[in-house]
Design goal:
Layout (H helix, E strand, L loop, with lengths): L1 H6 L6 E5 L2 E5 L6 H6 L4 H13 L4 H8 L3 H13 L3 E4 L2 H4 L1 E4 L1
Antiparallel strand pairs: 1-2, 3-4
């Protein structure tokens, strides 16, 4: 399933064990309309396009892509984590990256 999702350029399915059942959730392509519906701004959408192409983004990368301050980048990245679009991997400031959830 994961192989085909990657081939078709759609998000990987989510696998869960729920009270004795095995649940698989598929999601379609993330469109700009969907992202705007989540309340994301143009900078966040631009950064997500970057993540789709590059595989991840750092805070510094977010700053550079959008020409904004570190604090603004941090706040907007946290908002995308809260919205369930990104997740952080790594630890510390220098090794922290954000990837599609």
């Amino acid at each position: 399933m994961i192989k085909y999702c990657k081939e078709w350029e759609i998000p990987e399915p989510e696998f869960k064990h729920v009270t004795g059942d095995f649940v698989v959730t598929f999601r379609g392509k993330i469109t700009e309309e969907y992202l705007k519906g989540l309340g994301l701004n143009e900078r966040q959408i631009k950064a997500l396009e970057y993540v789709k192409k590059q595989g991840n983004i750092t805070n510094r990368g977010y700053q550079e892509v959008n020409n904004i301050s570190r604090n603004t980048a941090s706040a907007e990245l946290k908002a995308m984590i809260k919205a369930g679009i990104l997740k952080s991997i790594g630890a510390g400031k220098r090794n922290l990256k954000y990837v599609m959830k």
